[in-house]
Specification:
Length: 204
């Protein structure tokens, strides 16, 4: 039994497990129907966010440089998340293990659980790109919702803005200080968990 299953088993009352892409999925009571297609489409939304943002960031870094790319990130990240939320009847955002955008990036309770689980799985050698989490839970109003998270690991191209503070070039550090006075999201190294794409969707 892997950590993920243990985690699920310890938390779910009516245990009903089935397997999609080799991962165990648990349904809480009251029984919800969560089919593979729903998980698959949610995975697709996470992929869209990472893909679109990655492209924007890459383009901005190469044409305008890192200082201007901070503004692109500041505008583009929430805008793309917002657009994907509206298009998919979902709540889509990114959260961090340490956070730069204090309005959007702070994980709530289940997202913290997902991040803790991700740290463990990364340290056990799972590939970051394979690591995801989902659960069905009550949304607080008697209806079920799908909660999905996808790990985001630090890559070399992230370091200019999320690496050790002393390595961040002065004009960039200054820009970050102005835009994000409470920035916690520096000091990372390649391969570490940076955060997760998190998605909540109502279930029928
Ligand atoms: C040009 C600088 C820059 C680069 C390069 C960069 N980021 Fe960021 N990152 C930011 C900014 C600015 C924010 C805050 C965006 C916002 O306001 O929503 C941010 C926020 C985030 C967040 C959301 C959580 C939080 O702390 O607010 C994650 C996750 C993240 N970045 C991951 C990455 C990863 C992974 C890479 C590399 C693939 C990367 N970043 C590269 C500037 C950068």
């Amino acid at each position: 039994m892997n950590v993920f299953q243990k985690f699920i088993d310890s938390r779910i009352l009516g245990v009903l497990l089935f397997t999609v892409s080799g991962l165990a999925v648990a349904q809480s009571t009251p029984p919800a129907t969560i089919d593979a297609a729903m998980v698959q489409s949610t995975r697709g939304i996470a992929g869209e966010l990472l893909g679109q943002l990655g492209q924007k960031l890459k383009a901005a870094m190469s044409t305008e440089g890192p200082v201007a790319a901070v503004s692109v990130c500041k505008e583009a990240a929430p805008a793309i998340a917002h657009q994907l939320s509206n298009a998919n009847d979902a709540k889509v955002t990114r959260v961090g293990t340490r956070v730069r955008n204090q309005k959007m990036g702070i994980p709530n309770a289940w997202q913290k659980e997902a991040l803790t689980q991700f740290e463990t799985r990364l340290s056990q050698g799972e590939k970051a790109t394979d690591i995801e989490y989902w659960q069905v839970a009550d949304n607080g109003h008697g209806k079920n919702e799908l909660r999905y998270a996808k790990a985001i690991a630090v890559q070399p191209q992230c370091l200019s803005c999320h690496g050790p503070a002393q390595d961040i070039a002065a004009p960039l550090a200054e820009k970050l200080r102005i835009e994000y006075p409470n920035d916690q999201a520096t000091g990372y190294s390649v391969g570490q968990l940076r955060g997760a794409v998190v998605i909540t969707r109502p279930l029928p």
